[in-house]
What we know:
It contains three helices and 14 strands. By secondary structure, the protein is mostly beta strands. The strands form four sheets. A four-stranded antiparallel beta sheet has the order 4-5-6-7, with no helix packed on it.
Amino acid sequence: GSYFAWSQGHRIVKLVPWSQCLNNFLLHGTKNVANAISTRLPRQNSDSSQKNKPCEHIIDCGDIVWSLAFGSSVPEKQSRCVNIEWHRFKFGQDQLLLATGLNNGRIKIWDVYTGKLLLNLMDHTEVVRDLTFAPDGSLILVSASRDKTLRVWDLKDDGNMMKVLRGHQNWVYGCAFSPDSSILCSVGASKAVVAAILV
């Protein structure tokens, strides 16, 4: 709940701290709403809070953006790849990532706090229509594409692709995890819902 991301479908994604969005809303809201919520907002007047204050980022993804998803890490959740001892990225407890699905089939992973590109995932051959992170903090990402597949990526294993899920006869439009991250459902152009158990 710390950031809001949006894109108009062009190359640009805007990342805005949620507190800034809330403050802008309050400026245009009624006095009663402003007074009620302002008592709950933390004060950020000290020098140390100004240094760590979330800031807005504008990200150029390089191609038309079709999908966005936030993911955060839980350090206790290890990579599902047990044979690799070294990773390029060590995800800390306060890590917040943004995945962007692009027109060219690529998925770019960004550090929300810095706006820097971390990973460039390339395996889909068509538009990436939807993205979803497992809600258990494992940084497992699933992408749905017009190439009729879903792909499962392990971001804690440097973004390696774990699985390709097939079963849709047409484009895949959307995907979602169950709350315990054990089941993945997807829907495609053929109006069929496909469920998969992820182990």
